[in-house]
Amino acid sequence: MSKRAETQHKSAPVSLRNILAVDAAKAVHAAEHLLGRQGTALPGKAALTIAPSVLQDLAGQVRKTTFAVCGTNGKTTVNNLLCAFLEAEGHTVVCNRLGANMLNGIAAAFAEAADHTGRLEAAYACLEVDEASALRVFAYVRPDYLILTNLFRDQLDRYGEIDLMMEKLEAAIRQVPDLKLIINADDPLSVYLAQKSGHPYCCYGISEPTQDGEQTHAKEVREGRFCKYCGALLAYEFYHYSQMGVWRCPQCGFSRPDPVHTAAGILHENGLTFYADGQPVRTGMQGLYTVYNILAVISALAEDGHGGKEELFQTVLDRYQPQFGRSERFRIGRSCVLLNLAKNPAGFNQNIAAVLEDRSPKDLIIAINDNEQDGTDVSWLWDVDFDRMRDESIRSVTVSGIRALDMQLRLKYVEIPSLVSENTEEAIARKLEDGCGNLYVLVNYTALFAAHRYLKKKEEEV
Ligand SMILES: [Zn+2]
Fold this sequence. Notes:
The protein has about 450 residues and is of the alpha/beta class. The protein folds into two domains: about 15-320, UDP-N-acetylmuramoyl-L-alanine:D-glutamate ligase, CATH 3.40.1190; about 330-460, Mur ligase, C-terminal domain (Protein-Tyrosine Phosphatase, Chain A, Alpha-Beta Complex), CATH 3.90.190. The protein has helices at about 15-35, 40-50, 55-60, 75-90, 105-115, 135-140, 160-175, 190-195, 210-215, 290-305, 310-320, 345-355, 405-410, 425-435, 445-460; strands spanning about 65-70, 95, 125-130, 145-150, 180-185, 200-205, 235-240, 245-250, 260-270, 270-275, 280-285, 330, 335-340, 360-365, 395-400, 420, 440-445. The strands form three sheets. It has a nine-stranded mixed beta sheet, with helices on both faces. A six-stranded mixed beta sheet has the order 12-13-17-14-15-16, with helices on both faces. A two-stranded antiparallel sheet has the order 7-8. The termini are far apart. Bound molecules: zinc ion. Zinc ion binds next to loops. Zinc ion binds near residues 227, 229, 232, 249 and 252.
C-alpha cells in the first residue's frame, strides 16, 4: 500500500479558483455529452486554463495508490483492467478509461471524479499516460507505480524517435523520487530504461518458449535487438515476438533480469488460457500481447498488496469489455466481425498472429490512413511481416483508407492479391454481403473511428 499520508490534503481548504476550474470542466463535459461526444480532453483544458494548480490539488487527494501506465502498446487494456479490479474490490478509482492520455485528458478525468466543491473521494487513480506527455503529467501527478508495458517503434516518421522518447520518459521518471517501476523483463529496451533511471523495478515475463515465438518469422521487425549499453547484437534463447524474448548481451553482460511474476502454460483455444504466478487465467481475448497485458495487471496488483484474489480477478476478466478498437467483436446478421487497431509494426505483427490463430476461413480488410495522428509517413508498413498472411484460411484481402494503394503495393511484394476500396464503410458492406461470414478489420488510428461507427450502426440495424 502507498505510504501517502491519508490526511495530506483532506483538511486543506480548496481554493475558490480550483472550485471554479472543476465546475467549468464539469460544465464542458455536460455540454459535450449533450453533443454526443465523450472522452475528450476539452474539460481538462478548461480546468487547467482557469487554475493550473487544480490537477496537482486533485491528484494529491487520492488516498492510497496512484498507478500510471506507459508503453507503446497495451496501455488502455492494462489501465482499464487494473481499474476494473480495484472497483470490484469496492474502491473508488479515478481513471481516464477512454484513453485521453495527455495532460488535458488526465485533468479531465480528475475534474470529472471530483465533487462540485473540488473534493475528491478516491482511494486509487489508474492513469494511462502518453509517453511523450509523462514529463508534463508527472509534474502535477506523482504516481506510486509506473507500469511500462513495452517500448516499440510507434507510427514513427524517422529512426531515432524511440531513443528520444526513452530520454523523455527517463526524465519523467526521475521527477518522481519514490516511483517504483513495473516492467516487462522480456523487453530489453524497458529493462535498459529502468536500470538507467536508477529507480527500483519489479519485472514480469514469459520464461518459456511460446507457440507465437515458434511461428514468428525470422525477419519480423526487432527494433530493440541491439544492446543499448554497448551496441552488440543481443543473443536470444528464444523470441516471443518483436524484440520480446529471453535475451542477453554476449559482449557486456547486460541480460534479462529474472522476472518476479511469470506466465506459463499458454494455450490458444477460443482465446487464451495460462497460469500467471501459478494462478489459472482464461480469457476470450486473443494474442500473446494479451498475456503480457494481464500479467502486467497481476504484477501491479500483487506489488500493491492485492494479490491472491484469483476468483475475483477471473470474474473481472470475464466481465471486461475491451475498449473500442481493441479486439472488439460485432455480430451482424450471419457475420462475425472483429475490429482491431494496428498502428505500428509490432502491433500489426501481433494482429496477424491473432488472425492466424483462428484457423477458420476469413476475409480481411486493412485500412490505412495517413492523417497527422496516424503519422504521415507510412513506410513502417514495410516493416510488417505481411508474408505470413499467405495463408489458406484468408479467403480475401481488401485494402482501404487514404493509403490503400500503398498497402496494395506492399502486399503485392509478398504476392498477396488484394481488392481496393478506398471507402472503408463500402469495403465492410461488400464483405458483409459476399464474404464468408468471418471478417477481420485491421485499421490504424483515424480509420478506426469510421469503421467503429459503421459496425456499431450495422449491428444495431440487424
Ligand atoms: Zn552489451
